[in-house]
From TrEMBL:
This is Sushi domain-containing protein. InterPro entries: SUSD6 (IPR042866), Sushi/SCR/CCP_sf (IPR035976), Sushi_SCR_CCP_dom (IPR000436). SMART domains: CCP. Keywords: Disulfide bond, Membrane, Sushi, Transmembrane, Transmembrane helix. It comes from Aquarana catesbeiana. The keyword Membrane applies. PANTHER family: SUSHI DOMAIN-CONTAINING PROTEIN 6. GO terms for biological process: DNA damage response. The chain crosses the membrane at residues 7-25, 103-126. Pfam families: Sushi (PF00084).
């Protein structure tokens, strides 16, 4: 009878330990379309234990909907409970509204300014020589 009681006691302990351990592990967090998440500490993606923090990010040209981008695993659930999504960044579209990439506009403007500065420097340097050439005649 004593042996039978110990087996039941051991099974209750194992069930309790399983419950405690499983309540400390969170399910995989939702991954947004056009984005993903990083886990802190690194490499915690294998097991999301209590205290794990994930940081959401979006692909280039997209931004997170809302201000909060961190979730924390607490007692088997992600806190704060929220839906995470990445939406198209409207600022990206405004920068290229004419269909011309912003980088090419900046590059052509910089080239034009550099050319104008070069011409001014040449004019300033050559002006005394031109005056002396006209005076010598």
């Amino acid at each position: 009878m004593k042996c039978l009681t110990q087996k039941y006691w051991l099974s209750y302990v194992l069930i309790y330990l399983f419950y405690v351990v499983s309540s400390l592990v969170c399910p995989p967090p939702p991954e947004p379309e056009n984005g993903g998440f990083m886990c802190h500490p690194p490499h915690c993606e294998k097991s999301f234990t209590s205290g794990s923090v994930i940081e959401y990010f979006c692909a280039e040209g997209y931004m997170l909907k809302g201000d909060y981008k961190f979730l924390t695993c607490k007692n088997g659930a992600w806190n704060p409970p929220m839906g995470v999504s990445c939406r198209l960044n409207q600022e990206t579209n405004r920068n290229t509204s004419l269909g011309v990439p912003t980088l090419s506009i900046v590059a052509s403007t910089a080239s034009s300014v550099a050319l104008i500065l070069l011409l001014i420097v040449l004019f300033v340097l050559l002006q005394p020589k031109i005056k002396s050439f006209h005076h010598s005649r």
